[in-house]
UniProtKB/TrEMBL annotation:
Signal peptide positions (record): 1-23
InterPro entries listed in its UniProt record: DUF481 (IPR007433)
Protein name: Putative salt-induced outer membrane protein
Keyword terms: Signal
Length: 310
């Protein structure tokens, strides 16, 4: 089985484009019973999606080693939801990040745990994610980086994790293990206040353990399970381009290409960012994603984000 390789970019993303302030609102008395709270939460989701869109145009390492907190620091977030009554289930998530910066060297480790039980009291979610990012700035132009990712899904081969409209065959192709580690150099070709262009390359190893599910001809939720393990080298090329036309308008173009024996993956995102005032900003982006192993290899996404604060 050929496994499509995917890789998050090696750069740390920070807010360099000041987007307008989002309006804040308080929850009125009776909002929970009348459904106002639910609408308010959906509004927050939209606002967070727009913030994420603006953040994609930022690059903390564009102009060399940025000002950053020194030493060891981190954060932990925990969420638990238990339901009773018409539904009897629970969900638990734990997220944590530990960072250490010393001079030219910065690194961070992130952990995400997801656990859930369905109405029958059976586990339907049990996932673990670990990521690592490290960067050493040799000088204003050269740097070296390392990145790693480990993802496990204990229930990838278990029918209990299937949605109501899925059958046993939907387990096929799920990954029980997915690990990657790569290292490489980077170079800032252009590095001034108006235009910045940096490129980087990495060589890494990816390991996957995928589910091979064969559905029973008589029972939609039964069948046989086998596994396909695969270890292969992956080669990454990345480019980050930025050009400021004036204080109100700048352009970004981010490109990533990952190749391995099983597949090729390429993404390119062009972004046009307008800041008309401290209260009004717009971002228009066009993203193209290519994966060689898909039936339709190319997906294109047009995004428009606009924020006005007053």
């Amino acid at each position: 089985m050929k496994i499509i390789a995917s890789l998050a970019g090696a750069t740390a993303i920070a807010a360099a484009f000041a987007s307008p302030v989002f309006a804040q609102s308080e929850i009125a008395t009776g909002a929970n019973a009348t459904g106002i709270s639910n609408v308010n939460e959906q509004m927050k989701d939209v606002e967070e999606a727009v913030r994420d869109d603006f953040d994609r145009s930022s690059d903390a390492y564009r102009f060399g080693n940025p000002e950053q907190r020194q030493g060891l620091y981190g954060s932990v977030a925990l969420s638990y939801i238990g339901r009773s009554g018409n539904s009897e289930n629970q969900d638990f998530t734990l997220s944590g990040r530990l960072s250490h910066n010393q001079g030219q060297f910065s690194q961070s480790v992130g952990l995400l745990l997801e656990y859930g039980e369905n109405n029958a009291g059976d586990k339907d979610t049990e996932k673990t994610y670990v990521i690592y990012e490290g960067m050493y700035n040799i000088n204003d132009r050269f740097y070296a980086f390392a990145l790693g990712r480990l993802a496990t899904d204990s229930l990838a081969d278990d029918p209990v994790s299937l949605a109501n409209d899925e059958t046993f065959s939907d387990l096929d192709g799920r990954l029980k293990r997915d690990a990657y580690f790569g290292v490489g150099p980077g170079y800032r070709i252009i590095n001034n206040d108006q235009t910045a262009w940096r490129v980087q390359a990495a060589v890494g190893i990816r390991y996957t353990k995928a589910v091979e599910a064969t559905q029973s001809p008589t029972a939609p939720l039964e069948g046989t399970i086998a596994y396909d393990s695969n270890t292969e080298a992956g080669y990454l090329l990345s480019s980050r381009f930025y050009h400021k036309f004036n204080d109100q308008f700048f352009l970004t173009n981010d490109t990533d290409y990952l190749t391995s024996d099983s597949s090729d993956v390429a993404t390119n995102e062009l972004g046009l960012n307008f800041k008309m005032s401290d209260a009004f900003a717009t971002r228009v982006s066009y993203k193209t994603e290519y994966q060689s192993e898909r039936a339709i290899r190319t997906d294109n996404t047009l995004g428009v984000s606009l924020v006005y604060g007053f």
